[in-house]
Amino acid sequence: MIRADDRPSRRTLLGAASAAVLTAGCSADSNGQPAAPAATASAPGQVTPTGTHQAGIATPHTPQPNLLAIIADITPSLAPSAVQSAAPSAAPSAVPSGAPSGPLSAVGRLLAELGETIVALSAGTEPRLVGLVPGDLTVTVGVGPRLVRMAGRTLPGATDLPAFAHEQIAPAARGGDVLLQICASDPLVLSVAAAALLDRAGDRLRERWRQSARRGPAVQVAEGLTAPRNQLGFVDGIVGPHTEAEQSLNLWLDEPAPVAGGTIAVLRRMELDLRRFAGLSAAHQEAVIGRHRDTGIPLSGGVVADGPDLGAKTPDGRYLVPADAHARRAHAAVVGVRLMLRRSYSIDEPAPGLLFVSFQNDLRTFTATLTHMENGDALLPFTKTTASATFLILPGFDPRRPLGSTLF
């Protein structure tokens, strides 16, 4: 225990706080270059942006509470023929050998510059941070199907998402060429980082849409593992590839070489009919989801981290997890697919709902799951999807291997 005479005085605390404020601004090093702002005692630690995989997927282990997703298209100013050459019929059938040229080279330069900006933002040395401490900022970059098809139309990530039921999506909110997923504990950092990245891109990117989102309170579901509550009141994202072995099998691409270390992302912005769902009894809500609302434990019993026992029945022969429960209809073993890693966030605008974000090494993991859900999932009638896109999340990068260089 800390004794009273060991505790710092109020004057000491105020002095330390004042010193932190004075040193938190953007200063200059001995060469006159902007230095990283000094982190405050409460600021989360930096997440390394470089390595085998991009940050913002499996790292940090507990996702940051705030997210800003920006979906953009490349513009003709990037390369006059870039957009046209991205069409499936004009795309090369394999990854070009040798140094890329033309549109590929132009895309590669853009991605490499974005990677440089991400490193500077994470280190706190990017002047456009205007003195803000980046903390646990992560920026994850993906490229859409038509850009992937420029590099090779058979590559993972070259396939567009099909249309599904319960969608009402404007053309501008379907698909896209570039994803910038920006996450941080400090919500102020998100828009500042986005402005820095878009400024670096200049007129080479045209923004389609953006979505701010946040994660609900974290619930402990296992040792070292938490999951948030969503706006329906239920713990969300319990099951997934959480260990390194599970992620190696379900999450990361290992071939072909140009995409190794990457993954496939799906983003879906969904409105939730909160009023109608809240009008159901608690028991009815739990039957829709397949888990207990207060604890997250499956209706079949066990502990919160468990997947449901889909064979468990009542004495009179009824399934404990109903046939149309979301936990059953979306169950990977029932669908016959691998696991997806979800980093979903709740949204308020343009309407209350969910920004569903999943990562998987096979797009079929998502498409087959949603197709199976369409055939009887009790949750879907409470949803309406208003934006949808899929992206190849590029492999990790470092100073010797710029972001996107394995493809472009």
UniProtKB/TrEMBL annotation:
Domain Dyp-type peroxidase C-terminal: 228-396
Protein keywords: Heme, Iron, Metal-binding, Oxidoreductase, Peroxidase, Signal
Record-listed E.C. numbers: 1.11.1.19
KW Nucleotide-binding (keyword) present: no
Superkingdom to which the source organism belongs: Bacteria
Stretches with biased composition (Low complexity): 34-44
InterPro entries: Dimeric_a/b-barrel (IPR011008), Dyp_perox_C (IPR048328), Dyp_perox_N (IPR048327), Dyp_peroxidase (IPR006314), TAT_signal (IPR006311)
Domain Dyp-type peroxidase N-terminal, chain residue ranges per copy: 133-211
GO MF, one example: peroxidase activity
Cofactor(s) in the UniProt record: heme b
Segments for region (Disordered): 27-62
One Pfam family named in its UniProt record: Dyp_perox_N
NCBIfam families: Dyp_perox_fam
Family (UniProt): Belongs to the DyP-type peroxidase family.
Protein name: Dye decolorizing peroxidase
